[in-house]
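Hi F.,

I've been meaning to write this up properly since the lab meeting, where we talked about keeping a consistent format for the predictions we share between groups. The idea is simple: the sequence comes first, exactly as it goes in, then the structure tokens exactly as they come out, then a line or two of notes. No screenshots and no reformatting. I'm using this chain as the first example so we have something concrete to point to.
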Amino acid sequence: MRFVIVTGMSGSGKTQALKMLEDMGYFCVDNLPLELIGKFAELAANPAQEYSKVALGLDVRSLYKGGGSIDRFLEILNAYPHEILFLDCRQEQLVRRYKATRRLHPLSQGKRIEDGIAAERSYLMPLRDVADYVIDTSDLLTRQLMEEMSRRFSGNAEEGRLFLSVLSFGYKYGIPADADLVFDVRFLPNPFYVDELKHKTGNDPEVQQYVCQGSDAEAFLSKITDLLEFLLPKYSAEGKRQLMICVGCTGGKHRSVTMANRLGDHFARGAWPVKVLHRDIARQ
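Output, unedited:
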């Protein structure tokens, strides 16, 4: 079991880091009171529990305002195998972030933001000194932070990479609300008007053969796969974690299913993890 403590300066990106760990399959909990941290660590370390990766977000509110101390916190943690990730950030950048969000620093107590940041840094310095990983987010873009997190905490080659979902649908039932890219294949031959194919689907070889007759289907696939092979590394470099590619026909049963399957087959042979879904295939 991997147990990661995510802590650091308020405004340095701890919430983002926890969300990234969650996307990597970690069970994440944020800001437990100090008196519950030991119980949580005990549960996380229990071999009977189902989680192999656990992350606990902890900031100055749980320690300083909870009346605890860094030494007491470390004493509790040292009874269990753990790693500490400390997110840091330059003071001027933290001030800029607080002014942009118009939030109060937890230790400002009616004083200037700078005073709260200075008090927090002084209090958390012993924790930073013992951290296994320190990431300075002052100049990091979100995708760069994700790269840093994936490099340190992703134990699976597939984690932290762009995941493709290819979804077939019927226009008569509406375009999927979570679509990133939508391709219309209603120009292809429609098996609905062929009696022996009408009640079959794009999962059946006869329907696939009918839809792919002629050169249009292959030309479409060639152009779309070329486009996607260009786009996918760009999306991935910008930190996108999932891409929903939707392929639509009239009813979502024949043409879109056929072409979604073909796209899925193409990317299953490549570098991108992919899943094929058929939203409307069972509709009458």
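Notes:
The beta strands are 2-8, 27-30, 53-57, 83-88, 133-136, 163-170, 181-184, 242-249, 274-278.
The longest strand covers residues 163-170.

If this format works for you, I'll send the rest the same way.

G.
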